[in-house]
Each structure stands twice: as structure tokens, then as C-alpha cells.
Amino acid sequence: DRIRELLMLYSAPDSAAHPVSSLHFTKENLQEALDDNQFILHYQPKVLVQSGRLVALEALCRWSHPDMGLVGPAHFIPLMESTGLIHELTQRLIDQALKQLRNNLDNNKAIAIAVNMSPVVLTDTQLPDELYKKTRALTIEPELLTLEITESTLIENAARALETLARLKMKGFSLSIDDFGTGYSSMQQLNRIPFSELKIDRSFVQSANLDKTRKAIIEANINLAHTLSMETVAEGVETLAEWHLLSQLHCDMAQGFLIGKPMAAEDLPEWERQWTE
Ligand code: C2E
Ligand code: CA
Ligand code: CA
Ligand code: CA
Predict the structure, then answer these.
(1) Distances (CA, A) of 214 to 88, 124, 178, 242
(2) ipTM greater than 0.90, yes or no?
(3) Alpha-carbon distance values, 27 to 34, 77, 98 (Å)
(4) Where does the record place the EAL domain (predicted)?
(5) Each residue of 133-155: pLDDT tens digit?
(6) Ligand 1, pocket residues at CB < 6 Å
(7) How far, in Å, CA of 125 to CA of 38, rounded?
(8) How far apart are CA 91 and CA 108, in angstroms?
(9) Ligand nearest to the CA of 256
(10) Is 120:160 a contact under the CB 8 Å cutoff?
(11) pLDDT tens, 251-267?
């Protein structure tokens, strides 16, 4: 069938994190790397489950380290947050993502880009105005920029974060709740913030076709999201069996190694060519 054909099992060269799990960096290392523009974005496709059509790209940060090669976000995001450098990193990454979005629009591709937002930057209530100015400068519709926010994000500095999120929504940006179901307060957050998308965490998606509990959780989350007029994205889809289950459960979008790994912007056209073949 068509979906099976679409799932050519093409995946781009692995752009995953550096294998070493305990790299140690200092604030000075990070500041120098920021000044030298060593933080780059890779992009992972989000596709519609029904048709396979590409609808969005999630931007994932990598450190293109001069000696170590590509270093994954787990190795530097926590230090970026604790040192406050995350504000500068976020501004630079948003600039990169918007440049890519503009480039896609110039090629007649209205593909949303999703950027991951740290809880720390949500304490900055100026952020919505700044992001809005950036989109205006490039004549980009704010709704094409999705901001992915993890649930745990919302717990600290709740009042401020909620205010920033409400302002982002008022400016027209799309808000996505990331890793849904892994925090403590899923339900509470949902009725306080107008999210347009709910991302089902990989831990539920993995082998869900073989696990009744996971399947039930996915089904409940999809029903909840649809009742609240939100779209659903399953993350970490690695097998055809998982894909078929998601299709049965009316999940809107899928993301994962089955479809495509995070890749450099220059590899996207080749991925798309193979995917739509
Ligand atoms: P996330 O937002 O949940 O992103 C999904 C992670 O799962 C990514 O890891 C991605 O490469 C990986 N992944 C995608 N599909 C599959 C799959 O099918 N199987 C498996 N096993 N893994 C898959 P990555 O790029 O290492 O990012 C890890 C986390 O770091 C992200 O989790 C996100 O929370 C954070 N992060 C990444 N980029 C940024 C950023 O620019 N800013 C902030 N604040 N956080 C970021
Ligand atoms: Ca994410
Ligand atoms: Ca996620
Ligand atoms: Ca996740």
C-alpha cells in the first residue's frame, strides 16, 4: 500500500549526539563557542500519518565542536541554563530557524519550524515581542513558528512562564506541549495554556503495538487532545508496526527514525526526494 511505499526506511546519516555521556565544559567554553557560532540546528521531519506529507520540521541544537565533532544538547543545555547563556543561545537559534523558514517559503514550501524552548527563557517576558519583531522583519506568519515546551518547564516560575506563554499565543505563535505525560501536572497545564499541539513522548510510543498499557495511554492522550482541539504528534516512531497503530488511533502526525533522523538543512531536499518517491 501507499503508506508502506512511502516508508522507504530512508534515514539520513546519523546526526545524533556525541556518544560520551560525561563531557565537561565550562561557561567560558560555551561563551567562546557562542561567539564563534558553533551551535547549529539539525532538522527532523514531522509528517502527517494519513498521507505521509511533510508539515513541519523540529529544530534540534547541536554543538559543532572543532575537536569533538557534533555534541548533543544533553551535554550543554543544562550548563547554558544554569549560566544564563541560554538566552543568547535561544536568540541565535531562533534567528537560524527563521532564516531556514524564510528560505523554505522562498522555495514555495510553507513548512512550520518547531524550536525547543527552555523553561529559563520563559522567565523573560520581553521574549514574545522580540520574537514577533524577528518574524515581522522576515515577513513570516508567526503561526509558522512553533514553540515546543516540556511540561516540567511549566512548574518552575509558573506565574511568569504562564504570562510569557499567553503573550506568545496572543502574538500568533503556535505552542506545543512536549513530552506529554512525563511531568506531574499534565491536565492542569492543559487548561491554563492554549496549546495547539500535544506531543506524545517516545517512552509511550516505543513498542506500543506490543504493550496494552502504552497503547491505552496513547489512545487516551489522543482523545484528550482532540477534545481540546489540539493536534497530536507521536515522537520516536521507529517501526512500521508503531506507525500502523498510530494510524488506527487517529494520531495526526509522526516523527522518528522510521521517517527521518535529525539532519543538516542541506540534507533535507535529498530526504524529501526519497520520502516522496
Ligand atoms: P526532544 O525535544 O524530546 O527531542 C527529541 C529527541 O529524540 C532528539 O534528541 C531526537 O534526536 C531524538 N529522536 C527523534 N526521533 C527518535 C527516534 O525515533 N528514536 C530515538 N531513540 N530518538 C529519537 P536530541 O536531539 O539529542 O535532543 C534531546 C533533547 O534536548 C530534546 O528532546 C530537547 O528537550 C533538548 N533540546 C534539543 N535542542 C534544543 C534547543 O535548541 N533548545 C533547548 N532548550 N533544548 C533543546
Ligand atoms: Ca521537542
Ligand atoms: Ca519531545
Ligand atoms: Ca521526548
Answers:
(1) 38, 36, 17, 11
(2) yes
(3) 11, 11, 27
(4) 23-276
(5) 999 999 999 999 999 998 665 55
(6) 17, 44, 60-61, 72-74, 77, 93, 116, 118, 148, 178-179, 235-238, 256-257, 262
(7) 27
(8) 26
(9) 1
(10) no
(11) 999 999 999 999 999 99
